[in-house]
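Table 4 source record.
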Amino acid sequence: DVHIVESGGGLVSAGGSVKLSCRVSGFTFGDYTIGWFRQAPGKEREGVSCISSSRDAVKYSDSVWGRFTASIDIAKDTAYLQMNSLKTEDTAIYYCAATISPACGGPWALIEAPYSDWGQGTQVAVSS
């Protein structure tokens, strides 16, 4: 079974930075995709970034492009989301999700449907 554990959320001032971690276990072979999603209060969950385990595909939503950076350390089975220049509108629960499909290289990269396994989420709150 795939198991996902996120960490690194917290309270940060606007303009600050936070780095989220996502440890994934259970993929015994092959390439996989890690997606980062977030859900703000009263809003639907949205995709913000994805990265393939081979690192040949990385994508960002327009709302975070240039401020967030996704990375992955295969040796540690861990993906990261470095979040810089945070804004109050970045306040949300952030989720890490995984799929064995090469979702990050296609049109479904930041859509929930391809992702089969999800973490529990970690709260990021940005104060003004």
